[in-house]
What we know:
Its main location: membrane. Keywords: Membrane, Transmembrane, Transmembrane helix. By secondary structure, the chain is mostly helical. The protein has 4 domains: 1-203, MFS general substrate transporter like domains (Growth Hormone, Chain: A); 205-275, no CATH class; 289-508, MFS general substrate transporter like domains (Growth Hormone, Chain: A, Up-down Bundle), CATH 1.20.1250.20; 511-543. It contains 18 helices and 2 strands. Strand 1 and strand 2 (320-321) form a beta hairpin. Helix 2 runs antiparallel to helix 3 (50-73), helix 9 crosses helix 11 and helix 14 packs antiparallel against helix 15 (404-428). The longest helix has 35 residues, at 134-168.
Amino acid sequence: MGISMNLVPYLVGDLHISAAKSATMVTNFMGTLNLLGLLGGFLADAKLSRYVTVAISAAITSLGVILLTVATTIPSMRPPPCDEYRRQHHECIEANGRQLALLYVALYTIALGCGGIKSNVSSFGSDQFDVTDPKEENAMIFFISRFYFGISIGSLFGVIVLVYIQDNIGRGLGYGISAATMVIALAVLLCGTPWYRFKRPQGSPLTILWRVLFLALKKRNQSYPSHPSLLNDYENRRVPYTKRFKCLDKAAVLDDDCAANTNKNKPCVVSTVTQVEEVKMVLKLLPIWSTCILFWTIYSQMTTFTIHQATAMHRTVGSFVIPAGSFSAFLVITILLFTSLNEKVFVPLARKLTHNVQGITCLQRIGIGLILSIAAMVGAAIVEKERRQRAIQKEIKLSAFWLFIQFFLVGCGEAFAYVGQLEFFIREAPDRMKSMSTGLFLSTISMGFFVSSLLVYIVDHATKKSWLRTNLNKGKLNNFYWLLAALGFINLLVFLILASRHEYRTHLPIKPESREEELKSLNNEIIEDVEKKASIQSLKNIEP
């Protein structure tokens, strides 16, 4: 948080990179960080353990922050300073490729390390508790609440204290503190090694996913069996059989090569019905997954253009100048506040009104988050238009505290959307693919940042760089916010349609019938169907 929330002012102010390019650099960095969380989760599940993955990732992150400290401290890694007059006329010398090389290496080393930590550290913490023991289960709940409290305190420290140090004392010291705390964190983790509980890797669910898709494609020319009960391991299936995505059933077709019992248990030759159904369940989540991406695209503006807005606004309280990046504290505080209010006020109230145990369903939470994100962009567009008019017409700087509107609305939206999305993927994912839920969630955040980069690129070229200017007074950032609001509204309509058609996963235990009973039931259904058709035909033949 101390790095990402204050990176745009450094790129624009010290390296003289354009606002649009700076925003793209930050969103690409954050998008890659979350995407690499999938790699970290895969390695932990498939080969390494969560402990080893977290330890290695923490070491990589420490190295990355040390490199970032070096990159921002060495004078030769920055272009010559630029005065305000040259800055207003776009005459500053931009940092060249050699000066940016170490910065890129540092940022993406951090992304690699943080991705591994983000996808495994909470799971490794929960591994320390036996959920079958009531006392340990309560201890795990206590741990999780303190875990997220620690993250929130760290975020506030980053955006308030570290950002102030970076802007007023020096980037090298600010990032140096981050590097030192990361090294200390790694040392603390390693010191606890003798007391940890370790779980061996049990294989990644991604392996099952790709194997089913590959086998279905490989056997695409084979015919379907006369009845699903003829599919491999149908009698021992752990989830109900469904007809959706029937083409995937071919992965479980027993052909001549698989007829022998020796080949039935070879996953590289044929999949089981359970594996096929689990993949179907994952694919069923993708439509909702796709509509969650734009929320994080809007969220990403809080780390880029909103911070850049703050640099052009009045940030003085008495004689104290608040760093632009520190205004993101409003976002963190709002998330903390509304996450607590959600569970203690809104959900109990919703239970009374809806008579539903959950109070608000996970899809309803996501919908509320999407609505609030649209409202945030509308508010951001209005504030930016007012800021620009005052700056141009009256030469007055609008107070940066007006940014509280968009920070507040996006923070409220995240309190709903974050919990809703995570709950949705956890509840709806197959039992054996729970790590996929974290992966799907991280991928929505990642894609949101990448979509932001794509939008900035398209808008910058389509408008011939007239909307997104380094000098905000000469640009039209408010139009970009209106565009996001419009896209958010369209996305909300698509979400409502998909959510209304989504069938929640049934968790009722099933009792598979024997193949003979299945076939007998099928024969009875066919006989009844033939008799009905015969009766209808006989009625049609009766003359009046």
